[in-house]
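Hi R.,

Here are the chain sequences for the assembly we discussed:
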Amino acid sequence: MPAKITLAHGSGGGMSSRLIADVFYDAFGTDGAKANDAAVLSLAGGKLAFTTDSFVVSPLFFPGGNIGKLAFCGTVNDLATAGAKPVALAASFIIEEGLELEELRLIARTMGELAAETGIPIVTGDTKVVEKGSADKVFITTSGVGIVPGELNYHPGRIAPGDAIIVSGTIGDHGYCITALREGIAIKSNVTSDCQPLHTMVSSLSSLGDGVHAVRDATRGGVGTVLNEWAAQAGQEIVISEGLLPVLDEVRGGCGMLGLEPLYLANEGKMLFAVSAGLADRALSILRQHPAGRDAAVIGRVNPGEPRLLLETEWGTRRIVPVPVGEILPRIC
Amino acid sequence: MPAKITLAHGSGGGMSSRLIADVFYDAFGTDGAKANDAAVLSLAGGKLAFTTDSFVVSPLFFPGGNIGKLAFCGTVNDLATAGAKPVALAASFIIEEGLELEELRLIARTMGELAAETGIPIVTGDTKVVEKGSADKVFITTSGVGIVPGELNYHPGRIAPGDAIIVSGTIGDHGYCITALREGIAIKSNVTSDCQPLHTMVSSLSSLGDGVHAVRDATRGGVGTVLNEWAAQAGQEIVISEGLLPVLDEVRGGCGMLGLEPLYLANEGKMLFAVSAGLADRALSILRQHPAGRDAAVIGRVNPGEPRLLLETEWGTRRIVPVPVGEILPRIC
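And here is the predicted structure of the full complex:
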């Protein structure tokens, strides 16, 4: 096998088979003899969650992860937002001719290790290769299926006045980490991406039943974008308090220097929850018992009013946090 | 909305929302108010088929279809190879900055029309935008879920000596169409891509029960590659007859001129079946009643013997059809 990806690796012929067997079957623990165009899974029935996301992050490797970890966790977390127990993932790779095979292997291995750790197998996939210059190294699209327990229905439409808004930890870590890396100040940065699977943290809240109204991972566009969408979908006002937002000191300082707003920075391991006011304390204590939720905090509340997101500053003033317009940070995930 | 895609369309902010609402929700008939990160589907239980494929075809538009049609049909057909009734698709778009919005709209509309015609909705999706030069116009990854009737188990491992090999129509049309277009002889070509959904054709064979052993769409790598894989997975010899292969006259002539082998050309609307010998005639007559199977033909048989694919020429000689090595036709699908 040559050390770099060639167009022949995408031909569908012998080189493709060898690439798939050597890199992906090996990393994902796939039994090649049983592989087929579509995976078949047995289900007990009920509600199926189904999601997909493409990942184009640049650079491919960063402190705390790589594109494969992002792709795995991103889709697991999207399933979790529906309250689903993830059952299986699919992974499709678009590879630029010339990619170092070793890079691809590292990425696939990361995904395989996450599959083993979480018990969520990667059951089907695809590989395409395009000419040098027609893609940037590798793009990954992961899709996932999961089972939603019958009684759960997390949806922003269920957000109601009085709800507490909870975030599961510090905000902006992933976006700041990638930006610092690109800006070449990585050497001074200790911030790593927060990229991690959150499905067990979300399911730990299932004991609160339908007191949990909405769940969303605050990825591209950040907490500010998700809460704007929630305000619009719920038709209510959401007010968050600057002083309650968990932000790492280094992220806060770096954002000041770079002119970035942590509220708009991507997170890859943080969830937002809208929870009935009376259950907020219980939700917090449950979340904080989970390694991914140690820094969980109530950051705001839902008020009756026009659909908008307000930020209460530490001086007591209020300003509208708009939906961001224009380019924030391209290829952050 | 500007006429070309900008990085801001991929920001996750306001421009992203407008792009998604304007291009995709509109084309796919999505109720934006109900949209969420993961789609939730109700299932009766049983076996779930799950598949994914990326599409990178160049050019985006060709006689008989476009990348959106390929992406829709390719995933529907992969579900069909498992005997599944397709339930829903997911579609994820990686878009190059600068793409004409109108091209994206045409592609999305084609997918939406196919969803309406087939009754298979596109229930979830994602959009990423990368800088000019980091992708080539647009890549689409579609994933699909479907329900497999309990009794069906199509798998190459079930192929047995005596089985008839059936192809559902003329071979190489898609590969030839794209090649002709690229070689600039399109003006002389009347061959259109065979890209079409095949799930209803496959399910029409369900009355044959487990007499149908394996089903596969002969896409990238063509009939020659699939039958080599089948021979290897079944551990048997497959012999096909040159004189029985349905090939359009123009494809045969053009392949001669271009030095191509129709057996290795991609098909996007043709299925291969391995069927118990005694059921071959019934299978053929059922297939020929379906618009996509009018030219269905028995092209060969399975023999006990070492795993390989043989071609019987019209002169009665036999040669091995090898697994193709090296680049065949990049970005054919």
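Chain A touches chain B through 89 residues (CB under 8 Å). DSSP finds eight helices and 14 strands in chain A.

Let me know if anything looks off.

Best,
T.
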